[in-house]
Protein backbone atom coordinates (compact mmCIF):
# COMPACT_ATOMS: atom_id res chain seq x y z
CA UNK A 1 0.00 0.00 0.00
CA UNK A 2 1.32 3.42 -1.02
CA UNK A 3 1.51 5.98 1.78
CA UNK A 4 0.25 9.43 0.69
CA UNK A 5 1.04 12.51 2.74
CA UNK A 6 -2.09 14.65 3.20
CA UNK A 7 -2.13 18.21 1.95
CA UNK A 8 -2.29 21.18 4.27
CA UNK A 9 -5.91 21.73 3.22
CA UNK A 10 -6.93 18.21 4.22
CA UNK A 11 -5.01 18.47 7.51
CA UNK A 12 -6.86 21.64 8.42
CA UNK A 13 -10.17 20.18 7.42
CA UNK A 14 -9.65 16.96 9.40
CA UNK A 15 -8.59 18.91 12.48
CA UNK A 16 -11.80 20.95 12.14
CA UNK A 17 -13.84 17.76 11.74
CA UNK A 18 -12.43 15.89 14.77
CA UNK A 19 -12.42 18.93 17.00
CA UNK A 20 -16.08 19.74 16.21
CA UNK A 21 -17.03 16.12 16.70
CA UNK A 22 -15.36 15.92 20.12
CA UNK A 23 -16.52 19.36 21.33
CA UNK A 24 -19.96 20.03 19.85
CA UNK A 25 -21.42 16.54 19.50
CA UNK A 26 -25.01 15.98 18.42
CA UNK A 27 -26.62 14.41 15.39
CA UNK A 28 -27.05 17.64 13.45
CA UNK A 29 -23.43 18.54 13.57
CA UNK A 30 -22.46 14.96 12.78
CA UNK A 31 -24.73 14.93 9.67
CA UNK A 32 -23.36 18.25 8.43
CA UNK A 33 -19.80 17.11 8.98
CA UNK A 34 -20.60 13.83 7.25
CA UNK A 35 -21.56 15.74 4.12
CA UNK A 36 -18.45 17.88 4.42
CA UNK A 37 -16.43 14.72 4.79
CA UNK A 38 -17.83 13.30 1.54
CA UNK A 39 -16.85 16.50 -0.26
CA UNK A 40 -13.32 16.29 1.22
CA UNK A 41 -12.98 12.65 0.24
CA UNK A 42 -13.90 13.50 -3.30
CA UNK A 43 -11.19 16.17 -3.40
CA UNK A 44 -8.56 13.85 -1.96
CA UNK A 45 -8.62 11.78 -5.14
CA UNK A 46 -9.11 8.43 -3.45
CA UNK A 47 -6.50 8.65 -0.72
CA UNK A 48 -6.72 6.06 2.00
CA UNK A 49 -9.17 7.60 4.47
CA UNK A 50 -8.63 4.98 7.21
CA UNK A 51 -4.93 5.74 7.52
CA UNK A 52 -5.55 9.48 7.46
CA UNK A 53 -8.17 9.28 10.17
CA UNK A 54 -5.88 7.25 12.44
CA UNK A 55 -2.97 9.59 11.92
CA UNK A 56 -4.88 12.74 12.73
CA UNK A 57 -6.75 11.21 15.60
CA UNK A 58 -3.36 10.56 17.22
CA UNK A 59 -2.34 14.16 16.52
CA UNK A 60 -5.45 15.44 18.24
CA UNK A 61 -4.93 13.20 21.29
CA UNK A 62 -1.31 14.27 21.71
CA UNK A 63 -2.17 17.93 21.24
CA UNK A 64 -4.95 17.67 23.79
CA UNK A 65 -2.67 16.06 26.37
CA UNK A 66 -0.06 18.78 25.96
CA UNK A 67 -2.66 21.52 26.23
CA UNK A 68 -4.47 20.17 29.24
CA UNK A 69 -1.54 18.73 31.26
CA UNK A 70 1.31 21.06 30.48
CA UNK A 71 0.94 23.15 33.67
CA UNK A 72 1.35 20.13 35.94
CA UNK A 73 4.23 18.36 34.14
CA UNK A 74 6.79 20.94 35.20
CA UNK A 75 5.85 20.43 38.83
CA UNK A 76 6.76 16.71 38.85
CA UNK A 77 10.12 15.96 40.49
CA UNK A 78 12.29 13.37 38.79
CA UNK A 79 12.95 10.07 40.60
CA UNK A 80 15.89 7.72 40.20
CA UNK A 81 15.12 5.16 37.55
CA UNK A 82 15.71 2.28 39.99
CA UNK A 83 12.97 3.37 42.42
CA UNK A 84 9.70 1.80 41.16
CA UNK A 85 6.38 2.46 42.88
CA UNK A 86 6.66 -0.79 44.83
CA UNK A 87 10.09 0.13 46.26
CA UNK A 88 8.94 0.88 49.78
CA UNK A 89 6.38 -1.92 49.95
CA UNK A 90 8.86 -4.82 50.18
CA UNK A 91 9.08 -6.48 53.57
CA UNK A 92 12.61 -6.39 55.03
CA UNK A 93 14.00 -8.06 58.15
CA UNK A 94 15.90 -5.58 60.32
CA UNK A 95 19.17 -7.10 61.63
CA UNK A 96 19.53 -6.97 65.43
CA UNK A 97 22.71 -4.88 65.27
CA UNK A 98 20.80 -2.03 63.62
CA UNK A 99 18.38 -1.87 66.53
CA UNK A 100 21.23 -0.90 68.86
CA UNK A 101 22.22 2.19 66.87
CA UNK A 102 21.41 5.70 67.99
CA UNK A 103 18.01 6.87 66.63
CA UNK A 104 19.33 8.93 63.71
CA UNK A 105 21.74 6.22 62.57
CA UNK A 106 19.07 3.57 63.03
CA UNK A 107 16.56 5.45 60.89
CA UNK A 108 19.07 5.89 58.06
CA UNK A 109 20.21 2.27 58.31
CA UNK A 110 16.65 0.95 58.09
CA UNK A 111 15.83 3.19 55.14
CA UNK A 112 18.99 2.15 53.34
CA UNK A 113 18.34 -1.50 54.12
CA UNK A 114 14.98 -1.33 52.38
CA UNK A 115 16.52 0.27 49.31
CA UNK A 116 19.34 -2.26 49.17
CA UNK A 117 16.99 -5.21 49.69
CA UNK A 118 15.10 -4.18 46.57
CA UNK A 119 18.32 -4.18 44.58
CA UNK A 120 19.33 -7.59 45.87
CA UNK A 121 16.27 -9.18 44.31
CA UNK A 122 17.66 -8.15 40.93
CA UNK A 123 21.22 -9.25 41.67
CA UNK A 124 20.76 -12.66 43.26
CA UNK A 125 23.90 -14.77 43.85
CA UNK A 126 24.49 -17.67 41.52
CA UNK A 127 24.34 -21.00 43.42
CA UNK A 128 27.34 -22.21 41.40
CA UNK A 129 29.62 -19.39 42.53
CA UNK A 130 32.33 -20.70 44.78
CA UNK A 131 32.53 -24.10 43.13
CA UNK A 132 35.67 -25.32 41.44
CA UNK A 133 34.11 -25.06 37.99
CA UNK A 134 33.47 -21.36 38.43
CA UNK A 135 36.71 -20.14 39.97
CA UNK A 136 35.42 -19.24 43.42
CA UNK A 137 33.64 -16.10 42.28
CA UNK A 138 31.75 -15.76 45.58
CA UNK A 139 34.09 -13.05 46.87
CA UNK A 140 33.34 -10.92 43.80
CA UNK A 141 29.60 -11.18 44.37
CA UNK A 142 30.06 -9.97 47.95
CA UNK A 143 32.20 -7.01 46.95
CA UNK A 144 29.98 -5.93 44.08
CA UNK A 145 26.95 -6.20 46.33
CA UNK A 146 28.68 -3.92 48.82
CA UNK A 147 29.48 -1.46 46.02
CA UNK A 148 25.77 -1.41 45.10
CA UNK A 149 24.93 -0.65 48.71
CA UNK A 150 27.41 2.21 48.60
CA UNK A 151 25.78 3.54 45.45
CA UNK A 152 22.33 3.34 47.05
CA UNK A 153 23.34 5.07 50.27
CA UNK A 154 25.16 7.85 48.41
CA UNK A 155 22.25 8.39 45.97
CA UNK A 156 19.64 8.40 48.74
CA UNK A 157 21.73 10.21 51.36
CA UNK A 158 21.37 7.34 53.84
CA UNK A 159 25.02 6.36 54.39
CA UNK A 160 25.86 5.40 57.95
CA UNK A 161 28.84 6.86 59.73
CA UNK A 162 32.01 5.34 58.21
CA UNK A 163 30.14 3.51 55.44
CA UNK A 164 31.97 5.41 52.72
CA UNK A 165 35.31 4.36 54.24
CA UNK A 166 36.36 1.08 52.64
CA UNK A 167 38.71 -1.70 53.73
CA UNK A 168 39.76 -4.32 51.17
CA UNK A 169 40.65 -7.76 52.55
CA UNK A 170 43.00 -9.44 50.12
CA UNK A 171 44.88 -12.07 52.14
CA UNK A 172 44.22 -15.71 51.32
CA UNK A 173 43.66 -16.55 55.00
CA UNK A 174 41.00 -13.83 55.17
CA UNK A 175 39.27 -15.65 52.34
CA UNK A 176 39.69 -19.07 53.94
CA UNK A 177 37.99 -17.81 57.11
CA UNK A 178 35.19 -15.93 55.37
CA UNK A 179 34.29 -18.63 52.84
CA UNK A 180 35.57 -21.90 54.29
CA UNK A 181 35.30 -21.34 58.05
CA UNK A 182 39.05 -21.55 58.71
CA UNK A 183 39.68 -20.91 62.42
CA UNK A 184 43.45 -21.03 62.71
CA UNK A 185 45.22 -17.98 64.09
CA UNK A 186 44.70 -15.92 60.94
CA UNK A 187 41.04 -16.93 60.86
CA UNK A 188 40.47 -15.89 64.46
CA UNK A 189 42.19 -12.57 63.73
CA UNK A 190 40.04 -12.01 60.64
CA UNK A 191 36.90 -12.68 62.68
CA UNK A 192 37.91 -10.10 65.30
CA UNK A 193 38.78 -7.45 62.72
CA UNK A 194 35.62 -7.96 60.65
CA UNK A 195 33.45 -7.81 63.76
CA UNK A 196 34.97 -4.50 64.83
CA UNK A 197 34.88 -2.87 61.38
CA UNK A 198 31.30 -4.01 60.86
CA UNK A 199 30.23 -2.68 64.25
CA UNK A 200 31.74 0.70 63.37
CA UNK A 201 29.97 0.78 60.02
CA UNK A 202 32.92 0.43 57.63
CA UNK A 203 32.43 -1.13 54.21
CA UNK A 204 34.48 -4.33 53.79
CA UNK A 205 35.27 -5.65 50.33
CA UNK A 206 36.59 -9.16 49.72
CA UNK A 207 39.27 -9.85 47.12
CA UNK A 208 40.64 -13.31 47.97
CA UNK A 209 44.37 -12.96 47.04
CA UNK A 210 43.47 -11.58 43.63
CA UNK A 211 45.64 -8.51 42.95
CA UNK A 212 44.00 -7.86 39.58
CA UNK A 213 40.62 -7.65 41.31
CA UNK A 214 42.05 -5.48 44.09
CA UNK A 215 43.21 -3.03 41.43
CA UNK A 216 39.77 -3.17 39.82
CA UNK A 217 38.01 -2.43 43.13
CA UNK A 218 40.43 0.29 44.16
CA UNK A 219 40.14 2.21 40.90
CA UNK A 220 36.36 2.39 41.15
CA UNK A 221 36.48 4.19 44.50
CA UNK A 222 40.07 5.37 45.14
CA UNK A 223 38.95 8.22 47.36
CA UNK A 224 37.02 5.89 49.68
CA UNK A 225 39.65 3.20 50.30
CA UNK A 226 41.26 3.47 53.75
CA UNK A 227 43.54 0.49 53.37
CA UNK A 228 44.21 -2.85 51.71
CA UNK A 229 45.26 -5.80 53.88
CA UNK A 230 46.97 -8.52 51.89
CA UNK A 231 50.18 -10.40 51.17
CA UNK A 232 52.55 -9.15 48.47
CA UNK A 233 51.85 -12.09 46.19
CA UNK A 234 48.77 -14.10 45.38
CA UNK A 235 47.25 -16.65 43.05
CA UNK A 236 46.35 -13.86 40.66
CA UNK A 237 49.29 -11.49 40.37
CA UNK A 238 51.39 -9.49 42.79
CA UNK A 239 51.31 -6.09 44.41
CA UNK A 240 54.26 -4.98 42.30
CA UNK A 241 52.17 -5.65 39.18
CA UNK A 242 49.48 -3.23 40.40
CA UNK A 243 51.54 -0.70 42.39
CA UNK A 244 51.36 2.98 41.55
CA UNK A 245 54.52 4.22 39.83
CA UNK A 246 55.54 7.19 37.75
CA UNK A 247 54.44 5.31 34.65
CA UNK A 248 51.42 3.60 36.22
CA UNK A 249 49.48 6.51 37.66
CA UNK A 250 46.32 4.48 38.25
CA UNK A 251 48.08 1.82 40.30
CA UNK A 252 47.53 1.18 44.01
CA UNK A 253 49.61 3.55 46.17
CA UNK A 254 52.09 1.65 48.36
CA UNK A 255 51.12 3.70 51.41
CA UNK A 256 47.58 2.23 51.28
CA UNK A 257 48.79 -1.40 51.28
CA UNK A 258 49.47 -3.16 54.60
CA UNK A 259 51.38 -6.43 54.42
CA UNK A 260 49.65 -8.84 56.79
CA UNK A 261 51.54 -11.62 58.55
CA UNK A 262 50.15 -13.29 61.65
CA UNK A 263 53.67 -13.66 63.07
CA UNK A 264 55.62 -10.62 64.33
CA UNK A 265 59.11 -9.51 63.27
CA UNK A 266 58.54 -9.91 59.53
CA UNK A 267 59.34 -6.77 57.54
CA UNK A 268 58.26 -7.06 53.91
CA UNK A 269 56.66 -3.70 53.11
CA UNK A 270 58.23 -1.52 50.46
CA UNK A 271 57.29 1.57 52.51
CA UNK A 272 58.41 0.79 56.05
CA UNK A 273 57.94 -0.92 59.39
CA UNK A 274 54.46 0.35 60.27
CA UNK A 275 53.05 -1.02 57.01
CA UNK A 276 53.71 -4.54 58.31
CA UNK A 277 50.61 -5.68 60.22
CA UNK A 278 50.77 -8.52 62.77
CA UNK A 279 48.35 -10.38 65.05
CA UNK A 280 50.82 -11.33 67.80
CA UNK A 281 53.08 -8.96 69.68
CA UNK A 282 56.16 -11.06 70.29
CA UNK A 283 58.74 -10.23 72.90
CA UNK A 284 61.65 -7.81 73.15
CA UNK A 285 63.89 -6.03 75.62
CA UNK A 286 61.67 -2.98 75.27
CA UNK A 287 58.98 -4.92 77.09
CA UNK A 288 61.44 -5.76 79.84
CA UNK A 289 62.35 -2.11 80.31
CA UNK A 290 58.70 -1.15 80.39
CA UNK A 291 58.07 -3.94 82.85
CA UNK A 292 60.76 -2.69 85.19
CA UNK A 293 59.09 0.73 85.17
CA UNK A 294 55.86 -0.92 86.28
CA UNK A 295 57.09 -2.14 89.66
CA UNK A 296 59.10 -5.06 88.39
CA UNK A 297 56.24 -6.69 86.56
CA UNK A 298 54.42 -7.72 89.71
CA UNK A 299 51.51 -10.09 89.33
CA UNK A 300 50.33 -9.50 92.85
CA UNK A 301 50.59 -12.63 94.97
CA UNK A 302 50.87 -14.94 92.00
CA UNK A 303 54.45 -14.47 90.85
CA UNK A 304 56.23 -12.22 88.39
CA UNK A 305 56.01 -11.55 84.70
CA UNK A 306 59.06 -10.70 82.68
CA UNK A 307 57.76 -7.83 80.61
CA UNK A 308 55.43 -4.93 80.24
CA UNK A 309 52.38 -6.95 79.29
CA UNK A 310 52.56 -10.09 81.33
CA UNK A 311 53.86 -8.13 84.29
CA UNK A 312 50.56 -6.41 84.96
CA UNK A 313 47.16 -7.33 86.18
CA UNK A 314 44.26 -5.81 84.26
CA UNK A 315 43.91 -3.07 86.89
CA UNK A 316 47.55 -2.04 86.63
CA UNK A 317 47.48 -2.19 82.84
CA UNK A 318 44.76 0.46 82.54
CA UNK A 319 47.05 3.08 84.01
CA UNK A 320 50.06 2.15 81.92
CA UNK A 321 48.89 2.58 78.35
CA UNK A 322 51.54 5.14 77.49
CA UNK A 323 54.39 2.88 78.57
CA UNK A 324 53.53 -0.04 76.33
CA UNK A 325 55.74 -0.73 73.37
CA UNK A 326 52.67 -1.21 71.24
CA UNK A 327 51.50 2.34 71.97
CA UNK A 328 54.89 3.99 71.96
CA UNK A 329 56.35 5.42 68.80
CA UNK A 330 53.40 4.46 66.57
CA UNK A 331 52.96 8.03 65.37
CA UNK A 332 56.49 8.40 64.04
CA UNK A 333 58.20 9.15 67.38
CA UNK A 334 61.11 6.77 67.10
CA UNK A 335 62.79 5.34 70.17
CA UNK A 336 66.27 6.06 68.88
CA UNK A 337 67.53 2.53 69.51
CA UNK A 338 69.89 0.68 67.22
CA UNK A 339 68.37 -1.68 64.72
CA UNK A 340 68.15 -5.39 65.39
CA UNK A 341 71.05 -7.50 64.30
CA UNK A 342 70.72 -8.37 60.64
CA UNK A 343 67.93 -5.82 60.08
CA UNK A 344 69.73 -2.55 59.69
CA UNK A 345 72.83 -2.48 61.86
CA UNK A 346 74.50 0.52 63.41
CA UNK A 347 72.47 3.71 63.48
CA UNK A 348 69.20 2.20 62.23
CA UNK A 349 66.13 2.73 64.38
CA UNK A 350 64.24 -0.13 65.96
CA UNK A 351 61.35 -1.89 64.25
CA UNK A 352 57.84 -0.61 64.74
CA UNK A 353 55.17 -2.75 63.07
CA UNK A 354 51.42 -2.20 63.29
CA UNK A 355 50.01 -4.50 65.93
CA UNK A 356 46.31 -5.36 65.74
CA UNK A 357 45.55 -8.28 68.08
CA UNK A 358 42.72 -10.74 67.83
CA UNK A 359 40.31 -10.62 70.76
CA UNK A 360 40.47 -13.01 73.71
CA UNK A 361 37.20 -12.84 75.63
CA UNK A 362 36.45 -13.90 79.21
CA UNK A 363 35.03 -17.42 79.37
CA UNK A 364 31.28 -17.58 78.78
CA UNK A 365 30.77 -20.55 76.46
CA UNK A 366 31.89 -22.85 77.87
CA UNK A 367 31.47 -21.38 81.35
CA UNK A 368 34.47 -21.12 83.63
CA UNK A 369 34.94 -24.24 85.78
CA UNK A 370 36.99 -23.80 88.98
CA UNK A 371 40.18 -25.86 88.86
CA UNK A 372 39.24 -27.90 91.94
CA UNK A 373 36.17 -29.19 90.08
CA UNK A 374 38.14 -30.41 87.04
CA UNK A 375 39.77 -33.81 86.60
CA UNK A 376 43.57 -34.09 86.61
CA UNK A 377 43.63 -33.76 82.86
CA UNK A 378 46.44 -32.28 80.74
CA UNK A 379 45.34 -31.13 77.29
CA UNK A 380 48.08 -31.46 74.66
CA UNK A 381 48.11 -28.71 72.02
CA UNK A 382 48.29 -30.67 68.74
CA UNK A 383 45.80 -30.91 65.85
CA UNK A 384 47.69 -33.55 63.87
CA UNK A 385 49.44 -36.80 64.79
CA UNK A 386 52.53 -35.74 62.81
CA UNK A 387 53.26 -33.03 65.39
CA UNK A 388 54.62 -35.82 67.60
CA UNK A 389 57.10 -36.95 64.90
CA UNK A 390 60.47 -35.64 63.73
CA UNK A 391 59.22 -33.76 60.68
CA UNK A 392 57.51 -31.27 62.99
CA UNK A 393 60.52 -30.97 65.32
CA UNK A 394 58.73 -32.08 68.49
CA UNK A 395 60.04 -30.75 71.78
CA UNK A 396 60.40 -34.33 73.05
CA UNK A 397 61.51 -36.69 70.29
CA UNK A 398 61.35 -39.66 72.67
CA UNK A 399 57.63 -40.36 72.46
CA UNK A 400 57.82 -42.72 75.43
CA UNK A 401 57.98 -39.68 77.71
CA UNK A 402 54.19 -39.42 77.88
CA UNK A 403 53.65 -42.92 79.22
CA UNK A 404 56.50 -42.58 81.72
CA UNK A 405 55.17 -39.24 82.95
CA UNK A 406 51.65 -40.66 83.24
CA UNK A 407 52.85 -43.58 85.34
CA UNK A 408 54.63 -41.21 87.72
CA UNK A 409 51.97 -38.50 87.98
CA UNK A 410 48.91 -40.73 88.31
CA UNK A 411 50.28 -41.86 91.67
CA UNK A 412 50.20 -38.27 92.92
CA UNK A 413 47.11 -37.04 91.06
CA UNK A 414 44.28 -39.61 90.91
CA UNK A 415 42.83 -40.11 87.47
CA UNK A 416 45.68 -38.24 85.80
CA UNK A 417 45.74 -38.47 82.01
CA UNK A 418 46.97 -36.77 78.84
CA UNK A 419 44.30 -35.99 76.25
CA UNK A 420 44.53 -34.57 72.74
CA UNK A 421 42.16 -33.86 69.86
CA UNK A 422 44.01 -34.77 66.68
CA UNK A 423 43.94 -36.76 63.44
CA UNK A 424 46.27 -37.96 60.70
CA UNK A 425 45.92 -35.37 57.95
CA UNK A 426 48.23 -37.07 55.45
CA UNK A 427 46.96 -38.78 52.32
CA UNK A 428 46.39 -42.52 52.08
CA UNK A 429 49.72 -43.33 50.40
CA UNK A 430 51.69 -41.39 53.00
CA UNK A 431 49.88 -43.15 55.81
CA UNK A 432 50.68 -46.57 54.30
CA UNK A 433 54.34 -45.77 53.62
CA UNK A 434 54.98 -44.20 57.02
CA UNK A 435 52.37 -45.15 59.65
CA UNK A 436 52.08 -42.75 62.58
CA UNK A 437 50.43 -43.65 65.85
CA UNK A 438 49.66 -41.51 68.84
CA UNK A 439 52.26 -42.03 71.60
CA UNK A 440 51.27 -44.45 74.35
CA UNK A 441 49.74 -42.82 77.41
CA UNK A 442 47.60 -40.30 75.49
CA UNK A 443 43.83 -40.52 74.95
CA UNK A 444 42.67 -39.09 71.64
CA UNK A 445 39.39 -37.17 71.72
CA UNK A 446 39.38 -36.99 67.93
CA UNK A 447 38.80 -34.06 65.65
CA UNK A 448 36.58 -31.42 67.25
CA UNK A 449 34.95 -28.17 66.23
CA UNK A 450 35.71 -24.95 68.10
CA UNK A 451 32.89 -25.34 70.62
CA UNK A 452 33.78 -28.91 71.56
CA UNK A 453 37.49 -28.07 71.71
CA UNK A 454 36.88 -25.27 74.18
CA UNK A 455 34.54 -27.48 76.23
CA UNK A 456 37.22 -30.16 76.55
CA UNK A 457 39.87 -27.55 77.27
CA UNK A 458 37.73 -25.95 79.99
CA UNK A 459 37.61 -29.36 81.68
CA UNK A 460 41.42 -29.57 81.86
CA UNK A 461 43.88 -28.27 84.41
CA UNK A 462 46.93 -27.73 82.19
CA UNK A 463 47.67 -27.10 78.51
CA UNK A 464 50.89 -28.70 77.24
CA UNK A 465 52.80 -27.46 74.21
CA UNK A 466 54.97 -29.96 72.33
CA UNK A 467 56.75 -27.48 70.04
CA UNK A 468 54.23 -26.94 67.27
CA UNK A 469 52.15 -24.96 66.36
CA UNK A 470 53.96 -21.79 67.37
CA UNK A 471 52.16 -18.64 68.50
CA UNK A 472 48.79 -20.38 68.48
CA UNK A 473 45.79 -18.51 69.95
CA UNK A 474 44.96 -21.61 72.05
CA UNK A 475 47.31 -20.82 74.98
CA UNK A 476 45.60 -17.41 75.27
CA UNK A 477 42.25 -19.20 75.38
CA UNK A 478 43.59 -21.60 78.02
CA UNK A 479 44.73 -18.73 80.25
CA UNK A 480 41.32 -17.07 79.88
CA UNK A 481 39.82 -20.30 81.27
CA UNK A 482 42.23 -20.38 84.21
CA UNK A 483 44.53 -23.01 82.66
CA UNK A 484 48.33 -22.57 82.78
CA UNK A 485 50.43 -23.27 79.69
CA UNK A 486 53.64 -25.30 79.49
CA UNK A 487 55.80 -23.81 76.73
CA UNK A 488 58.96 -25.56 75.49
CA UNK A 489 61.95 -23.43 74.43
CA UNK A 490 65.47 -23.97 73.12
CA UNK A 491 68.71 -22.02 73.62
CA UNK A 492 71.96 -21.19 71.89
CA UNK A 493 75.25 -22.07 73.55
CA UNK A 494 75.58 -18.44 74.64
CA UNK A 495 71.94 -17.95 75.73
CA UNK A 496 71.04 -16.69 79.18
CA UNK A 497 68.27 -18.87 80.63
CA UNK A 498 66.93 -15.85 82.50
CA UNK A 499 66.77 -13.70 79.38
CA UNK A 500 64.11 -14.89 76.91
CA UNK A 501 65.42 -12.44 74.34
CA UNK A 502 68.49 -14.64 73.97
CA UNK A 503 66.62 -17.93 73.54
CA UNK A 504 66.84 -19.67 70.19
CA UNK A 505 63.13 -20.49 70.02
CA UNK A 506 59.93 -20.69 72.02
CA UNK A 507 56.58 -22.24 71.24
CA UNK A 508 54.89 -18.94 72.12
CA UNK A 509 57.03 -15.86 71.55
CA UNK A 510 54.48 -13.46 73.09
CA UNK A 511 53.98 -15.53 76.23
CA UNK A 512 57.68 -15.42 77.06
CA UNK A 513 56.65 -12.32 78.96
CA UNK A 514 54.77 -14.46 81.54
CA UNK A 515 56.28 -16.77 84.15
CA UNK A 516 54.94 -19.27 86.67
CA UNK A 517 52.23 -20.01 87.64
CA UNK A 518 50.75 -18.76 84.35
CA UNK A 519 53.35 -20.04 81.89
CA UNK A 520 55.97 -22.70 82.62
CA UNK A 521 58.97 -22.45 80.28
CA UNK A 522 60.60 -25.87 79.85
CA UNK A 523 63.76 -26.75 77.93
CA UNK A 524 63.08 -28.93 74.91
CA UNK A 525 64.07 -32.55 75.51
CA UNK A 526 64.42 -32.15 79.28
CA UNK A 527 62.27 -34.87 80.83
CA UNK A 528 62.82 -33.77 84.42
CA UNK A 529 61.62 -30.23 83.71
CA UNK A 530 58.71 -31.68 81.73
CA UNK A 531 57.39 -33.71 84.67
CA UNK A 532 58.17 -31.04 87.28
CA UNK A 533 56.29 -28.38 85.29
CA UNK A 534 53.18 -30.57 85.03
CA UNK A 535 53.35 -31.33 88.74
CA UNK A 536 53.62 -27.65 89.70
CA UNK A 537 50.88 -26.59 87.31
CA UNK A 538 48.47 -29.20 88.70
CA UNK A 539 49.31 -28.15 92.25
CA UNK A 540 49.01 -24.39 91.67
CA UNK A 541 45.61 -23.39 90.24
CA UNK A 542 45.25 -19.96 88.65
CA UNK A 543 42.36 -17.63 88.09
CA UNK A 544 41.31 -16.73 84.53
CA UNK A 545 43.77 -14.27 83.02
CA UNK A 546 43.90 -12.34 79.74
CA UNK A 547 46.95 -10.37 78.68
CA UNK A 548 45.94 -6.70 78.51
CA UNK A 549 47.11 -6.45 74.89
CA UNK A 550 44.67 -9.21 73.82
CA UNK A 551 41.51 -7.66 75.28
CA UNK A 552 38.72 -6.21 73.18
CA UNK A 553 39.47 -2.78 74.58
CA UNK A 554 43.06 -2.85 73.36
CA UNK A 555 42.08 -4.43 70.04
CA UNK A 556 39.66 -1.59 69.37
CA UNK A 557 42.22 1.04 70.37
CA UNK A 558 44.72 -0.41 67.91
CA UNK A 559 42.17 -0.67 65.08
CA UNK A 560 41.00 2.88 65.73
CA UNK A 561 44.57 4.14 65.70
CA UNK A 562 45.28 2.40 62.40
CA UNK A 563 42.14 3.79 60.78
CA UNK A 564 42.82 7.35 61.91
CA UNK A 565 46.52 7.64 61.13
CA UNK A 566 47.56 9.88 58.23
CA UNK A 567 49.49 7.15 56.44
CA UNK A 568 50.17 9.24 53.35
CA UNK A 569 51.87 11.93 55.42
CA UNK A 570 53.98 9.35 57.28
CA UNK A 571 54.96 7.71 54.00
CA UNK A 572 55.92 11.09 52.52
CA UNK A 573 58.40 11.70 55.35
CA UNK A 574 59.93 8.24 54.94
CA UNK A 575 60.20 8.68 51.17
CA UNK A 576 61.88 12.07 51.49
CA UNK A 577 64.43 10.67 53.96
CA UNK A 578 65.03 7.69 51.68
CA UNK A 579 65.71 9.89 48.66
CA UNK A 580 68.15 11.90 50.75
CA UNK A 581 70.05 8.80 51.84
CA UNK A 582 68.69 8.54 55.39
CA UNK A 583 66.98 5.20 55.98
CA UNK A 584 64.70 4.87 58.99
CA UNK A 585 62.99 1.57 58.23
CA UNK A 586 63.81 -2.15 58.48
CA UNK A 587 63.61 -5.11 56.12
CA UNK A 588 65.01 -6.17 52.78
CA UNK A 589 62.01 -5.07 50.69
CA UNK A 590 62.06 -1.32 51.35
CA UNK A 591 62.48 0.89 48.30
CA UNK A 592 61.20 3.94 46.47
CA UNK A 593 57.49 4.28 45.73
CA UNK A 594 55.03 6.83 44.40
CA UNK A 595 52.65 8.70 46.68
From TrEMBL:
It comes from Kwoniella dejecticola CBS 10117. Residues 297-313 have a biased composition (Gly residues). This is Glycosyltransferase family 18 catalytic domain-containing protein. It comes from the Eukaryota. Keywords: Membrane, Transmembrane, Transmembrane helix. The chain crosses the membrane at residues 50-69. Residues 315-349 have a biased composition (Basic and acidic residues). One of its GO terms (molecular function) is alpha-1,6-mannosylglycoprotein 6-beta-N-acetylglucosaminyltransferase activity. The lineage of its organism: Eukaryota, Fungi, Dikarya, Basidiomycota, Agaricomycotina. InterPro entries: GT18_cat. Residues 429-548 form the Glycosyltransferase family 18 catalytic domain. Residues 286-349 are annotated as: Disordered. Signal peptide: none annotated.
